[in-house]
């Protein structure tokens, strides 16, 4: 679980754009971030499994 202080710090607008750090909107995870959706891979997988992300489904072949 991400620290609350770091989550709040990442939400503030940085002084310089290169200091921006991507974090998951739902859980605050800093790693495995998917830019297209703005969430981490774990939250993305759960939302897809529930069918809450339109146009995405689990692959099987």
Brief characterization of the structure:
By secondary structure, this protein is mainly alpha-helical. It is built from 2 helices and 2 strands.
List the helices and strands and how they pair.
Blueprint: H1 4-11, E1 33-34, E2 39-40, H2 41-50
Antiparallel strand pairs: 1-2
Give an overview in words.
It contains two helices and two strands. The chain is mainly alpha-helical and 61 residues long.
Main traits of this protein?
single chain, 61 residues, mainly alpha, two-stranded antiparallel sheet, 2 helices, elongated
Number of helices: 2
Structural class: mainly alpha
The neighbouring-strand order within the major sheet is: 1-2
How confident is the prediction overall: mean pLDDT? 87
Unreliable sequence segments:
none
């Amino acid at each position: 679980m991400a620290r609350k202080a770091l989550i709040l710090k990442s939400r503030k607008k940085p002084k310089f754009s290169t200091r921006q750090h991507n974090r998951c909107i739902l859980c605050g995870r800093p790693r495995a971030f998917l830019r297209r959706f703005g969430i981490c891979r774990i939250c993305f997988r759960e939302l897809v499994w529930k069918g809450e992300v339109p146009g995405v489904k689990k692959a099987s072949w």
